Amino acid sequence: MTIANRNLILNADSYKASHYLQYPQGTTQFSSYIEARGGQFKHAVFFGLQMFIKEYLSKPITNDDIDEARAVFEAHGVPFHETGWRYIVDTCGGYLPIEIQAIPEGMVVPVQNAMVQVINTDPQCAWLTSYVETALLRAVWYPTTVATVSWNCRQIIQGYMMETCEAIEGIDFKLHDFGARGATTEEAAAIGGAAHLVNFQGTDTISAIMAARRYYGAEMAGFSIPAAEHSTITAWGRDNEAAAYANMLGQFAGPGKLVAVVSDSYDLWNAIDNIWGDALRGRVVATGGTLVVRPDSGEPVAIVIETIERLMKKFGCTVNNKGYRVLPDCIRVIQGDGISQQTIVAILEAMKQRKQSADNIAFGMGGALLQKVSRDTMQFAMKTSAAKVKGIWRDVYKDPVTDRGKRSKKGILAVVKNNRGEVRTIRELDLGQRVNLLQTVFKNGQLVREFNFDQVRANALVSAIATESTEEADAELHSPDLG
């Protein structure tokens, strides 16, 4: 059974169907843009548009699609612009006559800047620019929001690693995606999971690595290790808990190898003190690899601190050149229960106060990574900013007195960097000799500009460095005057 709707005409809100009858006579073009208006974060990591273009816009609309849409809309109670859609099939080969411009995928920009701009290329299809809003906005807000959540977690973890670790080379594997089972659909897991992989390389979401492969040419964007779940431990019975752990070492441990074992099925403290730290301690040390102990219940901050302290008592520790304690290479901890950006901060701060290095811990993040986001997390919106009516371009905007935060931009837009490297949105008319970061990525059915996954990751990394140096400019950038 296929649930996903592949008929692009039906990939819209119902009220869009009647909008073609609502525009001024003589309207031949509309230009609209997508931005994050604010919300929880000061910056956005733009990602995901290429997936949507390849999956949905690179395939033509057919007469069968139109027939289906006509039947649906007539039964649904809304008008259907059959003439307009037949024109697209007959004149444009079924490909949408629109041009989409976007900033580079992976780029980190302050909120309240345009990330995408859409304009129709055929004067008979002015209605189409706004019609694609539902599908296009969803294709941008979700992966961009997940990538932004993940990116912010990376900045937090990196900050604590710089304070408490001798090196930060392991940061790519400090936040592991546990979110597949909590996502609403397999497609959501794929899109959101790929967004996380812009910033990290650890994932258990296979759909994510397939999305990165199919849409961005990444041979292998993410990695995992053998790991136990509660059923593989409890199947041995409580009296054989030590045997279950020993089996994990026998099956997967070895020089240079990692194996993760959930250890709270019965009594986490007994597992640490008496099984891992006593009965199996010699085997753990002798493997030449790393055992990753996973607590999976209790209050996260207290559990992590106590787990590390008990492991240090049994396995010892060293003090690095920054004065923080580090477990031996044979043993580490991963906390995957109750993890969010807020709990990551709380755990790492508590560890720092106890002189425990961030080297000791990795995190697994599930629902808070892929599911606990919405369009309102970053206040995403797509708005029309210009219309060509009877041959003359006019500004189109909203400016509600009841919520000035929803004031929209005017005119055809461009995104530039000034001489201090600060990103801002301006009118295209004011571009001059500056480079417009909004570049055409799709036009009339063709993917014009393509990014591979390495480029996306590099853009996020370079942008992160630039963002740190221009933080003080945020107040100005958050209120661009485009009037």
TrEMBL record:
Belongs to the NAPRTase family. GO terms for molecular function: glycosyltransferase activity; nicotinate phosphoribosyltransferase activity. Residues 7-100 form the Nicotinamide phosphoribosyltransferase N-terminal domain. InterPro entries: Aldolase_TIM, DUF5598, N/Namide_PRibTrfase, Nicotinamide_PRibTrfase, Nicotinate_pribotase-like_C. It catalyses: beta-nicotinamide D-ribonucleotide + diphosphate = 5-phospho-alpha-D-ribose 1-diphosphate + nicotinamide + H(+). Pathway: Cofactor biosynthesis; NAD(+) biosynthesis; nicotinamide D-ribonucleotide from 5-phospho-alpha-D-ribose 1-diphosphate and nicotinamide: step 1/1. Residues 173-445 form the Nicotinate/nicotinamide phosphoribosyltransferase domain. Coiled coil: none annotated. The keyword Transferase applies. Its EC number is 2.4.2.12. Keywords: Glycosyltransferase, Ligase, Pyridine nucleotide biosynthesis, Transferase. The lineage of its organism: Bacteria, Pseudomonadati, Pseudomonadota, Gammaproteobacteria, Cellvibrionales. It comes from Microbulbifer spongiae. This is Nicotinamide phosphoribosyltransferase.
